[in-house]
Design brief:
The chain starts with a helix and ends with a helix. It is an alpha+beta fold and 218 residues long. Among the domains are: 114 residues, Sandwich (Jelly Rolls), CATH 2.60.120.10; 35 residues, no CATH class. A five-stranded antiparallel β-sheet has the order 1-2-9-4-7, with no helix packed on it. Strands 6-5-8-3-10 form a five-stranded antiparallel β-sheet. Bound molecules: manganese (II) ion (MN).
């Protein structure tokens, strides 16, 4: 009986591992067909006979994103949504731009680990472990690399006096992003302020004030 339970537990663990990242592909490629009305996990494949080199190509990542916003940062994703050849390949890319003191606010990717390389400037980056809330941080300069494990809350902040640029590789064709403050204080409809006042140990007026700010930002 105990060994049967152990077998089931290990089997469940194996299954959960198998789905810990994007599923592996069953063919060379499955270029996304954006016109399809069929909904599958990812995108339907375009007819392989109609695939060309352009389906694996994206141009424009040399251009800086617009950082004229409250946070002073910009993310330019290259994912299966705008590079159809990435469909089913389990990988994507993003260009990150920062004005001086620009911030990519604490967020997590539900489907991807992120590996970042600084191209220009100086970034203060970090993530928080889920087990004990331990914070891991580092100051990165040009050429430095840092990895943010899948599903963990992390941030990137430009602590230099110049613009900063980084590139991130992500282990999903569609990493997703949950920006913590926006999700909690700017959800639609709003989470009850009774809930948030208790959760954040704040009075309800402060919660209402935060909710007004973030619902306007979302
Ligand atoms: Mn990220």
């Amino acid at each position: 009986m105990a060994s049967r339970f152990l077998f089931l537990a290990l089997f469940a663990l194996a299954i959960s591992h198998a789905f810990g990242s994007d599923p592996s592909q069953l063919q060379d490629f499955c270029v996304a067909d954006p016109m399809s009305q069929v909904f599958v996990n990812g995108f339907v494949c375009k007819n392989p006979n109609a695939v060309t080199a352009d389906d694996f190509f994206f141009s424009g990542l040399d251009k800086a994103g617009n950082t004229s916003n409250n946070l002073g940062s910009s993310v330019t994703p290259v994912s299966a949504a705008n590079l159809g050849g990435l469909n089913t390949l389990g990988i994507s890319l993003a260009r990150l731009d920062f004005a001086p003191a620009g911030l990519i606010a604490p967020h997590y990717h539900p489907r991807a680990t992120e590996i970042l390389v600084v191209i220009e400037g100086t970034l203060y980056v970090g993530f928080v472990a889920s087990t004990n809330n331990q914070l891991f941080t580092k100051v990165l300069n040009k050429g430095d690399v840092f990895v943010f494990p899948q599903g963990l809350i992390h941030f990137q902040f430009n602590k230099g006096w110049t613009n900063a640029v980084a590139l991130s590789g992500l282990s999903s064709q569609n990493p997703g992003v949950v920006t913590v403050a926006n999700a909690v204080f700017g959800s639609n409809p709003a989470i009850s302020d009774d809930v948030l006042a208790k959760a954040f140990m704040l009075d309800k007026n402060t919660i209402d004030w935060l909710q007004a700010k973030f619902s306007a930002a979302n």
